[in-house]
From TrEMBL:
It is found in: Cell membrane. It comes from Natranaerovirga hydrolytica. This is Copper-exporting P-type ATPase. Residues 125-152 form a coiled coil. The chain holds residues 478 to 769 of 828 of the full protein. It comes from the Bacteria.
């Protein structure tokens, strides 16, 4: 049966906003050497907002948002929500969309009237042979400010750039500093571009930043960390994160995230605050000291 101390531990955990789904993981917690965090929705709030709009000559912001919004209303990505919200605020009427497609790790595409519209990162525009070199410096500046720049193109012409910023959760910085103080290393795994990822990593105090990872590549990144650090915890909220949560020695799901992630995790941080991880580690240490 379950040792009494573990049951007591679980009870305290629930009180402190940590839901334990797998008791064994609680024991593993105290052996964790490195914790890998997903970025969007885990370290950040997952609610990006449009901060900058750059249009090419002859294109108005309204036109840019009209095309971008007409496509992104079909996407469930947080980046898409930011654009749709911005469109709604300005009362821009959107158009019908045909042939919508999400392009993994790159962005989205679709047809508005007779035009193909592409929204995404450099990789996407390169693939579609859209020239954006003139704006490279502007894009890099946005990324250095920890913003994600989305490039919008109509057929093979760049229309403009929409940048968003995703605010960092209030307690992320403090939690990561505390973990490092406890001697536990931290990493960030994200699909976002390297410069934005590094800027966010710097803000929260994570030096080990793994960027431009495709959704199904997170598992491999966890495996790689396990080869190097043995015992690895992974924290995430998204459908994409579920396999990585399973692969990790301790899978930690954000309670405000997707059900798929919660089901894959060993523990759930009910309020989604990263500082709950410190409580969980302390609980693990205290509980298993008692049993021995
Ligand atoms: P993440 O969840 O870390 O953002 P994704 O694999 O979902 O990683 O996305 C990787 C990149 O692809 C994004 O940073 C963005 O540049 C681009 N992208 C994905 N979805 C969209 C979208 N709906 N609109 C615009 N760009 C997108
Ligand atoms: Mg996420």
């Amino acid at each position: 049966g379950t040792p009494t101390a573990l049951m007591v531990g679980s009870g305290i955990g629930a009180e402190k906003g940590i839901l334990i789904r797998n008791g064994e993981a609680v024991q593993t917690f105290k052996e964790v050497k490195i914790i890998a965090f997903d970025k969007t929705g885990t370290i950040t709030k997952g609610k990006p907002e449009v901060t900058d709009i750059i249009t090419v000559e002859g294109v108005t912001e309204e036109t840019l948002l009209y095309y971008a919004g007409s496509i992104e209303k079909a996407s469930e990505h947080p980046l898409a929500n930011a654009i749709v919200e911005s469109v709604n605020k300005r009362n821009i009427q959107l158009d019908n969309l045909k042939n919508f497609e999400a392009l993994v790790g790159m962005g989205v595409q679709g047809q508005v009237k007779d035009d193909m519209i592409y929204i995404g990162n450099r990789k996407l525009l390169k693939e579609k042979n859209v020239e954006y070199n003139q704006y490279e410096n502007a894009i890099e500046k946005l990324e250095t400010e920890a913003k994600t720049a989305m490039l919008v193109a109509k057929d093979n012409q760049l229309l403009g750039i929409i940048a968003v910023a995703d605010p960092i959760k209030e307690d992320s910085i403090k939690a990561i500093r505390e973990l490092e103080k406890m001697g536990i290393k931290t990493a960030m795994i994200t699909g976002d571009n390297e410069r934005t990822a590094l800027a966010i990593g710097k803000k929260v105090g994570i030096s080990h930043v793994i960027s431009e990872v495709l959704p199904d590549g997170k598992v491999d990144e966890v495996k790689r960390l396990q080869e190097k650090f043995q015992t690895v915890a992974m924290v995430g909220d998204g459908i994409n994160d579920a396999p990585a949560l399973k692969q990790a020695n301790v899978g930690i799901a954000i309670g405000t995230g997707t059900d798929v992630a919660i089901e894959a995790g060993d523990v759930t941080l009910v309020k989604g605050e990263l500082s709950s991880i410190i409580t969980a580690i302390n609980l693990s240490t205290a509980t298993f000291r008692k049993i021995k």
